Amino acid sequence: MIKILVATDLSERSAHAVQRAVQLIRRQGGGEWSLLHVIDDDAPAAHVQRQVQQAESLLQSQAERLGEQAGSVPRVIVATGEAATLIVEGARGMGADLLVVGAHRKSALRDFFVGTTLERVVRSSHLPVLRVNGPVTHEYRQALVAMDLSRTSQQALKRARDLGLASLDKLSVASAVEPVAAGVVMEAGISAEVLENQRELLRQQLVERLDALGATLSHERLLVQVGSPEGVVGEALSQSGADLLVLGTHAREGVSRFFLGSVASRLLGTLDCDALIVPPAG
Q: 236 near 271, Cβ under 8 Å?
């Protein structure tokens, strides 16, 4: 059984994350899970204490109802301090296998998946993070794995399978060959034919790696295109109908080479589907 930590800011978006956790716990017949709410302690102590009491009361009242839905009652944790640090500590304390969060766009945690907080949580905890982006109406039906040739991409696929969030018969893969700027292409003499050769080579290499994982995909389920990663992934999501995107990360870089710099942030900030962000194993 997997152990789940849900980080909640008590918003509607976090409620979606809680319901996804309920579904995952119920599917495995119960198990250990916790609700963690972090309160910023940069305020008078009396005010912070009132917030802690209110949050504990609210979450405890929800816990029994959630337990009836999930098959086991979640533990309630209300902490004060810096969110990323306390989330990592909470995950380690319970030996969590998965952290589930909502898309905190309208809260103090709105930048949770943009920049340092995501990188710190994922890198420090080596814990997969499932970002739930909307209401939970059904189990995940199709996963799309954004892959490059790194080992972390393969690890991400394995972890998604181990967590029961992706199955080989309901899986698609997307990868991008990024063209350099138009002027550089001309100076380097890189033609459309060269890019097409690179695309076909990347496809062959991905097929080999997927075969090694026991994943033999049809041509339609392996999309390798020339273009920006966000463009290629966006097209693949539309074509496949996937409702879960799986991303692998590098420990030192925070994001995969496939998603350099702001690309990951743009993807995670604009996608309508849920996303599983998987760091390398610790």
A: no
The side-by-side arrangement of strands in the sheet containing 171-177 is: 75-80, 33-39, 4-7, 98-102, 129-132, 274-278, 244-248, 143-146, 171-177, 222-226
Tell me the three-class secondary structure of 107-122, residue by residue. CCCCCCCCCHHHHHHH
Tens digits of residue pLDDT in 121-133? 776 777 899 989 8
Structural contact between residues 21 and 139, judged by C-beta atoms closer than 8 angstroms: no
> What type of residue sits at position 122?
V
Dihedral sign of CA atoms 34, 37, 38, 41 in order? negative
For residue 14, give every residue at least 6 positions away whose Cβ sits within 8 Å of its Cβ, in sequence order, or none. 6, 7, 8, 101, 102, 104
Using pLDDT thresholds of 50, 70 and 90, give the confidence band for residue 260: very low
Per-residue pLDDT of 208-233, as tens digits, reads: 999 988 888 988 899 999 888 888 99
Nearest of 240, 249, 245 to residue 273 by alpha carbon:
245
Instruction: Please check whether residue 256 is in contact with residue 112, taking contact to mean a CB–CB distance below 8 angstroms.
Output: no
In whole angstroms, what separates CA 278 from the centre of its chain?
7
Q: Which helix (H) or strand (E) holds 60?
A: helix 45-70
Tokens of 86: 């306390």
Beta bridge partners of 245: 144, 275
pTM, to two decimals: 0.87
